[in-house]
Amino acid sequence: MKEFFCDAVVIGAGAAGLCAASVLAKNNCKTIVIDREDQPGGILKQCIHNGFGLRYFKEELTGPEYACRVAAMAIQSGAELMLGTTAVEAKRNSDGSCSFKVFSRDNGVARVTAKAVMFTTGCRERTRGNIITPGTRPAGVFTAGAAQKLLNVAGYLPGKRAVIVGSGDIGLIMARRLKWCGIDVAAVVEIMNHPSGLTRNIVQCLDDFGIPLYLGHSVTNIYGKDRVEGVDVTKLVDGKPDASTTFHIDCDTLLFSVGLVPEVELAKQLGVKVNPATGGAFVDDDYETTSPMVFAAGNGLHVHDLVDFVSEESERAAACLLARLNSAKEEKTTEVSVDKTLKYVVPTLTRPGKKVNFFFRPLIVANKAVLECHADGVLLKKRMIPFVRPAEMLEFELDVPENCSNLNFALTGGELL
Fold it and tell me: How far is CA 296 from CA 49, 53, 93, 147, in A?
């Protein structure tokens, strides 16, 4: 078995992994990036639409262009990319280092050992099975991302007339893409009473093409033996389908855009605890998980709105990893929590006297809301937010006060919609 040794191993060569590797390698940290794909860039490679990079690169790029930029950054910084390589097993060694058993065409079965680990494993899509949609199981049922890869990479049309379940950003972008390719998009069906995707995608991908969006509705049956033939759509009343409102849509294709789940299975082998609110790891203000010298960033930590945010976060996490290689872990004594108006906060643990960027996912739709922070029950800071939508992540920079044992964040006031 071949052996590879390094200071830091990065698991995943998407935007997060490549940006983290760039920071690590250019600071004389021997870095290996492992990814099962033959080309770096992750999901960006199949996102051929523009809109990427406006914040991080200060110019508008397509997904493949963004992927090429960050891959070049990592390579020029001196990071070693171990592509076409799948990490299947992780373990902690007696000296505190971590080892990964990997499979690849070039090296067969090999072992990679590092002093520190950065998980940038991204997400997988939730499927029809995750939301238990009734009906037959014919061909023509895809996740939005799978259909995107089929169309943009392989060059195959997934069907002729489609219905999209869920108004997540990938599904919205695919609605537009399908229309551009001459495929009729009959409807987008969303279980919530508000869209799950960014407002700009609702406007540019649905409104501009006259695609109907059914909020507060659910697909309650799928028809077809060999191929999808149609679906039933039903309005939800108090969260339950009202059979009297059911209507039928003929289609041969059904796309699911019903959320993303962070990939954490490999991290759990190293004792990383998972935050049920995010699906990713619990991390402190240095992006270090509950397992020493194991860090996490990007969509594998919590789902971001923009890849630009992913790149920025992974660079911060890489800087923290570098610092930990040269110093002992500082005790974190301030717990961070959220009120019922917020789904989660990242990080969940910090230390007094440090400036920290906190990130949240709201659970309400409101205008003119106020994001408040209480330190040990006393109002510390607040900020007006003109528009609050679950699809848009919130950020709050705070100097954590000395002798503070608990921070709590909540959205208050506002005009609930």
Answer: 28, 22, 20, 28
